[in-house]
Design brief:
Blueprint: H1 8-17, E1 21-22, E2 27-28, E3 34-35, E4 38-39, H2 48-61, E5 69-73, H3 78-89, E6 97-103, E7 110-111, H4 116-120, E8 124-132, H5 136-147, E9 151-160, E10 175-180, E11 185-186, H6 192-195, H7 207-213, E12 218-220, E13 229-234, E14 239-242, E15 246-252
Parallel strand pairs: 5-6, 5-8, 8-9, 9-10
Antiparallel strand pairs: 1-4, 2-3, 3-11, 6-7, 12-13, 13-14, 14-15
């Protein structure tokens, strides 16, 4: 296990190196809002060494809490739970279990099935999650653990991007985030990134869907050195203006 606490700056560098944290961009979020930063947690999990290292940091934070089991929400939390439990088990004789919660039939709440409920009932449990935006999913997992008699010792997350507090996730005794990242966002009608023609990120988020939906308003600037978000003046005539590379010009798209 880690002998020293890793810093948020180092974690951010590692996440940026594997393209898990994108900043200074123009992102369209699932909500429809626009922003300049994005947390692409799925870019982390293929890298087993990085994932192990991040979960080792979780384990370091809760090493003295007597954790007996680790749980995460299905899919995104399974890998985190496994690695964290592994690192909590390493310096101890007794194994720390790793389980997961899954969506209930209502599609909203979480339940703990497959016999996992019997494994964690009465035990000290650490909940893990990748990204906190509203904290809703993490809170539901906390509630599911408590509903079957588990004792929630804390919540560990890769990134808290919503300014979430312990109160927001069920009054957990301890909330630890490797990274606290403030992500400002704007409604599309008041997005200054659109107004200034900042290039739209088409690789992550919902940029392509936005561009398709607003194809009568926007286009990608055909200038290869720009590729900013340009505005149609008259789409039929092929005239447009690009606030990024030629804000005062009316140009014609010959493509």
């Amino acid at each position: 296990m880690l002998m020293i606490q890793i810093t948020e700056e180092k974690v951010l560098k590692v996440l940026r190196d594997c393209n898990a944290v994108i900043t200074d961009s123009h992102i369209v979020y699932t909500s429809g809002k626009h922003g300049s930063a994005y947390v692409n947690k799925d870019a982390v999990y293929p890298h087993t060494k990085i994932t192990s290292w991040l979960c080792e940091a979780f384990a370091w934070q809760f090493a003295k809490q007597g954790i007996e089991a680790v749980i995460g929400p299905e899919k995104r939390g399974i890998i985190l739970a496994q690695w964290t439990a592994h690192h909590l088990s390493c310096p101890r004789i007794r194994e720390v279990l790793a389980v997961y919660a899954e969506k209930a039939d209502d599609g909203e709440s979480f339940v703990i099935k497959r016999g996992y409920d019997k494994l964690i009932s009465g035990k000290k449990v650490l909940v893990v999650e990748d990204v906190l935006t509203t904290g809703g999913s993490a809170k539901k997992v906390v509630e599911a653990v408590r509903a079957i008699g588990g004792k929630v010792a804390g919540l560990a997350v890769l990134c808290n991007r919503g300014g979430i507090t312990p109160k927001d996730v069920g009054e957990v005794p301890k909330l630890f985030a490797l990274v606290n990242l403030k992500l400002d966002s704007w409604e599309e009608d008041s997005c200054h990134l659109c107004d200034t023609g900042v290039p739209l990120n088409l690789d992550v988020g919902k940029g392509r869907e936005f561009l398709e939906r607003k194809k009568d308003t926007y286009l990608i600037c055909p200038n290869a050195k720009c590729r900013g978000l340009a505005y149609w003046i008259d789409k039929r005539a092929g005239t447009f203006t690009c606030p990024r590379c030629a804000p005062n010009e009316i140009r014609k798209n010959n493509q």
